[in-house]
Amino acid sequence: MSRDSLLFAISGTFFGLMVGWIIGSQRVVAPAPPAAPPAAAAAAPAQAGQAPARGVDERRASQLSAQAAAEPRNVAVRAELGNLYFDADRFDDAIKWYQDALTIKPDDADVSTDLGIAFYYTNQPDRALAQFAHSLGVNPKHTKTLLNQGIVLAFAKQDLDGAAKAWEGVVKLAPASPEGQAAKRALDGLRSAHPAPGGAGGAR
């Protein structure tokens, strides 16, 4: 799917707002086309102004890997390794460590959602959505998961109704939160691009 074709779903203003939006330990998917490799996506005009991806701090990665080997039940160190590689756009390595963490603690919704986002960036939107479903099975009110689910549905699957439902869930759960505000902007973008028949705002 070309980047231009993504614009059918959402306004350019919202597109720019969502790129690279990150909160806490959880990443929110930037609406990059799954068909493009991460390096190409990072260079796309829609991501202008973002800092280039950092290289991996190999010393820190080595320390954490040694700690993970010494502490086979340590979830936090595995999640940190996943984050370290994710931030360097080394998504395959991030996936390995997130999966390792979830093997120990499968009900960690934060790590599960980070794994889903890494799947998206490795051109696996169906696996991303399945992972988000797992996160929501653990915590149905996990707003960051719902926000990411909507982005993947809109941009990877062109499922605008499904995206709108996910974002509406975020707004209902936490309207004043950063996630709720981002979801509201997403819905406004959808409704501006696809007004409902008769002039009422809608997700179609």
Structure, explained:
The chain has helices spanning 3-6, 12-18, 38-42, 58-70, 75-87, 91-104, 109-121, 125-138, 143-155, 160-173, 178-193, and strands at 22-23, 26-27. Strand 1 (22-23) and strand 2 (26-27) form a beta hairpin. The chain has one domain (3-23, 56-199): Tetratricopeptide repeat domain (Serine Threonine Protein Phosphatase 5, Tetratricopeptide repeat, Alpha Horseshoe). Helix 5 (75-87) runs antiparallel to helix 6 (91-104) and helix 7 packs parallel to helix 9 (143-155). The chain has a two-stranded antiparallel sheet. The chain is built from eleven helices and two strands, in the order ααββααααααααα.
Tell me the layout of helices and strands.
Layout: H1 3-6, H2 12-18, E1 22-23, E2 26-27, H3 38-42, H4 58-70, H5 75-87, H6 91-104, H7 109-121, H8 125-138, H9 143-155, H10 160-173, H11 178-193
Antiparallel strand pairs: 1-2
